[in-house]
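Lecture notes, unit on binding sites. The following record was shown on slide 14. It pairs a sequence with 2-acetamido-2-deoxy-beta-D-glucopyranose.
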Amino acid sequence: MDSKKRLSPGPGTSPIRRRRFILVIAAFLCFIYFFGSPFRLPATLRNASGVSRAKIVHLVKGSKSQTAVKVDEIYGLLNLVTGDSEHEHILGHTESFDPTKPVDMALYAAGKEDLDWKERVEELNTRYPVVVFSKSYCPYSKRAKDLLAAYDVSPPPKIIEVDLRDDAIQVKTVLTRLTHHATFPNVIIRGKSIGGSDQLHALHANRSLRRTLEKAGMTVRGDIS
Ligand SMILES: *[C@@H]1O[C@H](CO)[C@@H](O)[C@H](O)[C@H]1NC(C)=O
C-alpha cells in the first residue's frame, strides 16, 4: 500500500517531490564526482575539440592521481630530455606554455598519459644518475665533460647538448628556474644541481668527486688518484 503510493505521484505529495529533488541532487553530485567539474579541466583540454569526453575524463583523472604523487619538476625535465625520440619533446609547443612558471607534469610526459612518475623517478635516478646540460660549443661544458670522462663512470653521464635542441630556450629557462644556476654546463646528480664546471672541478680537487659519484650509484672505473 505504502509503496504503491510512492510510485504514483499525485497532487499534494510534497515529500515524494522532495525525495526526488534530493535524488536529482545526489545524481548530479555523483556526476561531478565521476566526470569532474568542467571548470577544473586544464586549459589545454578545454580547447581540444578532437578529444572525446571519455578521454578527457581519463586525462583529468590521470592528472589528479599524478598530483597526489609529489614529484620534483626537474624529473619532468629529465624525463623529457633523456627520451629517445627527440621529436617527442614538446616544450613550447602550446601558445599558453610559460617556462618561467611551474609546468604541468603532463607536459613533460612526452605523450605518455599514464606515466607513473614515482616509478619513472626511480628509473631516471638509476639510469641517468648524472645528467650534464651542456652547450656543444662551450669550453666550460667541455671541461666538465672531459673531467667526467676521466672518471669513466658507469652508467655513463647523460649529456644533453641544449643548444642543439629545438626547445633550447625553453629548456634553459626551466632549468634556470629549477636549479638557480643560469649558465652551462649544469651538472645534475640525482635530480639536484651541483653547479657547473668550476664546482665539479672543486669536488675533484678536494677529492670528494669520486665519493659523490659513488654515492649517486655510479661505479668509477677511471684511474683517479
Ligand atoms: C669539497 O669542495 C666542495 C665544492 O667546493 C665543497 O662543497 C665540499 O664541502 C668540499 N669537501 C671537502 C671534504 O672539503
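Take-home: Residues 50 and 56 are 10 Å apart (CA to CA).
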